[in-house]
Amino acid sequence: MKAGLEIHQQLATGKLFCGCPSELSEEVEGSFERRLRAAGGENRAIDAAAALQASRGLLYRYEVAATTCLVDMDEEPPHPLNAAALETALTLALLLGSTPVDEVEVMRKIVVDGSTTAGFQRTALIATGGHVEVNGRTHAIETICLEEDAARRVGETAEGVTYRLDRIGIPLVEIATAPDISSGTDAREVAEEIGSLLRATGRVRRGIGTIREDLNVSVEGGRRIEIKGVQELRMIHEYVDREVARQGVLLALRDELVRRGAAGPTEPARDLTTIFAGNVSGPLSEVSRHGSVVWGLGLRGFSGSLRSPSGSSERLGRELAGQARAVGLGGLLHSDELPGHGVDEGQVDEVRRALGLGSEDAFLLVVAPTPTKAETALARAAQRARAALDGVPEETRDPLPDGSTRYSRPLPGRDRMYPETDIPPIPVDGKLLARLRDELPERPRARRERLARTHGLPTEIIRQLDRSDNLAEFESLVQRGHAPGAVARLLTQEVPAALADHPDAVAPSLDTLDAVLGGAAAGRFAKEGIPSILDALAAGAPDLDHAVGRLGLTAIPTENLDAIVERVVRANAAIIRQRGEAAFSPLMGDVMREVRGRRDGKEVAAALRRSIAQLRAEESPAPE
Asked: In 3D, which of 57, 34, 61, 47 has the Cα closest to residue 165?
């Protein structure tokens, strides 16, 4: 297999072609609506992906946010390209050893899915070539681009989609690798290293949705598939590996269909509505309830090929259903899953007779509000069925939470590009490049090695901090005098655990973390109380004082601790006599239930050992 990455990172430099900030907003100040249509690119041809998007005929509603201006609404020409964003992209190019272009030419990329108000996205090539090293292997970089992000989807109905314009225009750096990645694990590690380089610039936005990966995957005998918009780094290997498995199933199916001599679709599709007029359950009950139509299409030689093969969840039936969904239907039914879904065996036989099918043939059924919609869906399904005889068609797919993907649209091509006439070319000055070379940040690998060497922490702990975007916080907290081990544990274990229990919570600020570590070091509360304090802060405690008070974690004076320990020891004297040193563990549990979070565990253990020793000394017989 071969895989390549396209990594898109938002920049915190202000929007690319206006003066608005690179921030999202929940403040909606108005809205407007538009319909979009496909237009020809530079060579006047219509891009296949744009044509499909336009054919859906959706209405797009745009919410005007507090961080929105007339440029975002396509009611004003773009301003000059953001200089800080360009410098950031050039800095990244220099870190990757890429060659910057002599002149930046902004292009328009046709996009008519509603995510842009103008029907196109502005993008510019910044550099070519370069490489990134991961685990001793070199992976090539093909291009680095700078482009504007799309609007944020916030709602959807059958008639249209609602977008918010706060995200549109935020700068994106796009880094495309060569297809030289050979496993899902390698893909994840390359993405992690490029992410570290991006963060090293100090000008990237952080948080969910600020970095997205497109995965390009193919196997021998297959074709390139683009999995668009993966947001979870930890899932990259899963998407790659499952795509490899999916293509393997499709290639094996192709070989079987060719062996059978399968002929494919029996076009044209036919109206079969009368067969299902009495259905009262399942998806075909739409005929009697809402006056929908049912159309069918035969597939010569496809019987048994639409279901999943043994040991796999992939199946051709799902691939065909994706084509129906692409035109706005809920999917389709196929003969390998019938009888079922409200369709009885008699109706299956009627469909076979109506379509002139034999036992080796399969069929598809779609229910749609109009004949035109049904014909369109089955025409696309027929095209996909013919492609199954050739193996794996090129296409763009959307990632799903379980690591699988679904069909989105045809793979876009060059037909969607044409020059941006509102922005003049931007020369890349040699003096600018010289200055940026002098100001290059420390490379992530060198930084990790320095921190591991300086603070004596295992390399894997430093890598965890890097992957979690917390290296800067780690260095800042260590510089404030906190122990490196305690800081690393706080950032890699304790803070993530507290946030996992409170998904809507905001991560604690650097000053808050400094105060928490400082309180434990000063003996205000025990370090064992830190997880509880972080949990209270995530749950809504306004500050550290409220969290400590709410939990009752004020430190116990030494004399009070000694009194608690002595009481527990005296109450369990019989156990101590019977079990000796083995009595320490259960008694330690008894004491910690009373003082946990209010005194350090080591101090409690020392006090308990002293008290046990004193009791045993008192009860030892005096020498004669």
From this structure: 61
Structural domain contains residue 308: yes
Strand partners, 406: 398
Distances (CA, A) of 588 to 369, 557, 592: 71, 18, 6
Same domain, 128 and 244: yes
Domain extent, residue 573, equals 558-619
Query: Which two structure tokens, joined as six digits, stand for 540?
Result: 């809504």
Query: Across all residues in the chain, what is the average pLDDT?
Result: 91
d(C-alpha 9, C-alpha 199), whole Å: 9
Q: Which of 376, 417, 412 is nearest to 394 (CA)?
A: 412
Residue 432 domain flag: no
In the 8-state DSSP scheme, what is residue 340?
B
Q: E strands, 111-181, where?
A: 120-128, 131-134, 137-148, 152-156, 160-164, 171-177
Are residues 176 and 136 both part of a single domain?
A: yes
For residues 486-499, average pLDDT: 91
Q: How far is 104 from 86, CA to CA, in rounded Å?
A: 9
Contacts of 473 (CB under 8 A, 6+ apart): 491, 510, 513
**Does 242 fall in a domain?**
yes
Residue 547 and residue 592 in one domain = no
What the block records as the tokens of 574 is: 């019989």
Q: What is the pLDDT of residues 153-191, one digit of tens each?
A: 999 988 899 999 999 999 999 999 999 999 999 999 999
Q: How far is CA 56 from CA 32, 53, 188, 297, 518, in A?
A: 20, 6, 35, 22, 59
